[in-house]
Amino acid sequence: MHNQRQNMDVAQLVPNRVQSKDLSLREPPAPVVAVDAIAGDGDDVVSVVCSEQSGENDEIIVQDEDELKECKTYLRELLNREILAPDFLESVQRGGAGGVSEQSRQEVLVWIREFNSFFGFAAGTFAAAATLFDKILSVTRIKPEHGDIVGIGCLLIAAKQNEPRDVVPTNSQLCETCDHRFTEGEITRIEEIINKRLYHKFNGRVVISLDYLDEMVHYATLTGASTEVSTAEFEAVVTERMNSSTYHYELMSFRPSVLSLAVLDVEMQKDHLEATSHSRVVHELMEIMEIPQWDLENCKRCLSRYCEDDSS
User: Fold this and answer.
1) Following DSSP, what letter does each residue of the chain receive, concatenated?
2) Global pTM value
3) What does the pLDDT look like over 36-69, one tens digit per residue?
């Protein structure tokens, strides 16, 4: 792995992704990462560290209507729990003067995504870890030299919440993977600090852009979008783009629902899906998720710019 970087469990701040591809299995809203408050000080560590209508079976039509209604309800419930991210790099992190800068934030996120791939974790685990990292940055000024261990702590927490127990690395394995840049005790301690900080600050649910994906795709499929939208290949592309977008701080200023729909819209256009159904689905989702046209277009422009930068 690339040069190992340095330094800290909110076990329940970020909802689990729906892993099943059986879209008939509808899960209840927002399984969340629960935060266990762990006592202890040590602030110095982080410097306060729809089925097709056949005409023969009325039951199928009713089922589709129910599925659509359920999709809309779920999306609106997610929408009601959204939290718009503040400009924490400028305020809490002091624009990098004594805290984490935009560049160092991106470096840590790229680094923990490499770890996520190294351990074979799901894409949703990285998304959860990235959200935890931003949340701790929004409440605690982190010294630049401690950014790495905070990132490792966030990934460990996300893995414990989202991965099978037998694939979650031990602190000893993490130390070895990091070339012993951190001790087991330091990793344990930073996990406790993150839990404590985020439990008292949020003590609830945080919605991320990836949470909308399965439901938006299901809605698009029910309302006549191309079947390509529901393929595993398409989902993988959209998930990759959503996770890559976390690197770019400007994109985090958009509501998760806006970013999620913008990515879906852009990728549907790239795949040259049938224009009429594509446009209709996007506009229906905009209405359901209360997204103004100007907001979606601004987000798409930002995505386009960063896509070009990432590919160059």
Assistant:
1) --S-------TBSSPPP-----TT-PPPS---PBPPP-----GGGGT---PPP-SS-HHHHHHHHHHHHHHHHHHHHHHHT--PPP-TTTTTTGGGSSS--HHHHHHHHHHHHHHHHHTT--HHHHHHHHHHHHHHHHHS---GGGHHHHHHHHHHHHHHHHS-GGGSPPHHHHHHHTTTSS-HHHHHHHHHHHHHHHHHHT-S----GGGGHHHHHHHHHHTT--GGGGSHHHHHHHHHHHHHHTT-GGGGGS-HHHHHHHHHHHHHHHTT--HHHHHHHHHHHHHHTT--HHHHHHHHHHHHHHHHHHH-
2) 0.76
3) 333 334 333 343 333 333 444 433 333 478 889 9
